[in-house]
Amino acid sequence: MEQTVAIVTGASQGIGGATAIRLAKDFSVIVVVARNRDNLNATASEVEKAGAKAYIVAADLSKPEAAKLVIEETLTRFGRIDALLNIAGAVPGIDVMEMTDDQWIQGAELKLHGARRLTIHAWEALKKSRGAVVFISGTTALEPKSGTAAVGVINAAIDALAKAFAEKGVRDGVQVNSMLPGAILTERRRSMLEKSAKQQGITLEQSIERFPEKAGITRLGTPEEIADLMAYLVSPGARWLTGAAIRMDGGEVRGI
């Protein structure tokens, strides 16, 4: 049986790590990409326990040369790419009046441009395999706020970028979608809630418990729930789904 290869960025933790482990059920090889090799080692171990071969590429995708390196290394080693999941990137939540030019540029460089470059370099291989690409953005793309301006702006740009690739993908046989998660209990979210708890004089557990009511959601989501949806988006059953921005947020966004 021919092996299948998925690349997952941001795979050292959170949604990226959970997605890499989940995809081990469906692909022969998972190429895990992030800056932190130690954390990638932990993810790779879980991927192999789940049944797939893991291959680590430690790279900073905010650097222009990194995308080409990741794709060339994957193709040299395995000869094909069947799925690319662009999950890497955390944008700083700083007020629109306070964020500097450098912070704007740095925020976009990894999550937007890193994913763009990686998709371009992977495109020919994806055409050959009739593969799939998923970009991750977030619900802030739909409801930008002044206090976290760059998060919403960059996420909205990612959704637009995915649609641009999807149009090309219709002609080239590559499926492209974006995925918009809501509030997920990752380590980054936990750190944010811990900071909020200290400001309010409450415990972290109380902060986590109160957040869903404040946000108007059923509960905080888990990385594993998002990973299941990501796995569906690159599965054979989702092949007719392309050019879509899929939201999973516990009821946070109420607009149509």
Structure notes:
- By secondary structure, this protein is α/β, with parallel strands linked by helices.
- It contains 8 helices and 7 strands; from the N terminus they run E-H-E-H-E-H-E-H-E-H-E-H-H-H-E.
- It folds into 2 domains: 206 residues, Rossmann fold; 36 residues, no CATH class.
- Helix content is 50%, strand content 14%.
- It has a 7-stranded parallel β-sheet, with helices on both faces.
- The N and C termini lie far apart (44 Å).
Q: What sequence of helices (H) and strands (E) makes up the elements?
A: EHEHEHEHEHEHHHE
Radius of gyration: 18 Å
- CATH homolog superfamily of the largest domain: NAD(P)-binding Rossmann-like Domain
Q: N-to-C terminal Cα separation, in Å?
A: 44 Å
The largest pleated sheet is described as: 7 strands, parallel
User: Would you count the extended β strands for me?
Assistant: 7
Globular, elongated, flat, extended or rod-shaped: what is the shape?
globular
- Assign the CATH topology of the largest domain: Rossmann fold
CATH architectural type of the largest domain: 3-Layer(aba) Sandwich
* Number of alpha- plus pi-helical segments: 8
Beta-strand percentage range? 5-15%
Helix-strand makeup class: alpha/beta
Low-confidence stretches: none
CATH class of the largest domain: Alpha Beta
User: What spatial order of strands do you see in the largest sheet?
Assistant: 3-2-1-4-5-6-7
Average predicted local confidence, pLDDT: 94
Percent of residues in helices:
40-55%
What number of domains?
2
